[in-house]
Amino acid sequence: MPPRFGRVLISGDEIAARVLELGRAIGREHAGQDPLLVGVLKGAVIFLADLVRAIPMEVTVDFMGVSAYGAGPPSSGVVRLTADLSESIEGRDVIIVEDIIDTGRTLAYLRSNLSTRRPRSVSVCVLLDKMERREVDVKLDYVGFVIPDQWVLGYGFDLGGLYRGLPYITVLEAEASG
Ligand code: PRP
Fold this sequence. Notes:
Elements: E1 5-10, H1 12-29, E2 36-41, H2 44-54, E3 60-67, E4 80-83, E5 93-101, H3 105-115, E6 121-129, E7 142-146, E8 152-153, E9 169-172
Parallel strand pairs: 2-3, 2-5, 5-6, 6-7
Antiparallel strand pairs: 1-9, 3-4, 8-9
The chain binds 1-O-pyrophosphono-5-O-phosphono-alpha-D-ribofuranose.
């Protein structure tokens, strides 16, 4: 049975306006630097593509892949690296770009993994913060929207790999969040 979409949680226009604000803030606070944006596969790719174009300075990009929960159940907290950066980040100002922070476990893993590679700084830009599900305390430098505990779809967010291309963020109707 196809999923039933609920209401539009965040419209395409609202996303675009917020991404522009985030891009300007990053441009202000990283002026004079040569920041490296690290997109976390796969969901953050859509957000990263728009964010890069909203930052009013030259930046470089790279990607990391993580499997949030490995083979265990969602509560297991297992995080596994599935794809690594293409080059060294030593001395770089790194900005992790995530689509969503839920329990915080993936980001905690990424931060600790990246910090062993001697970057000059690591900051975090996330589109959605599902704050009420947090299990690990993680510092977020740039946050697009704080959202309730609902399963989101569109603009990078998927259900079984589908619907990432929707130009807005909607919620799955009558489904428990995961
Ligand atoms: C999502 C999201 C984060 C992680 C956040 O990835 O992109 O990486 O979960 O969850 P946490 O805060 O509880 O660790 P997902 O596993 O859905 O992969 P995807 O981006 O490839 O869709």
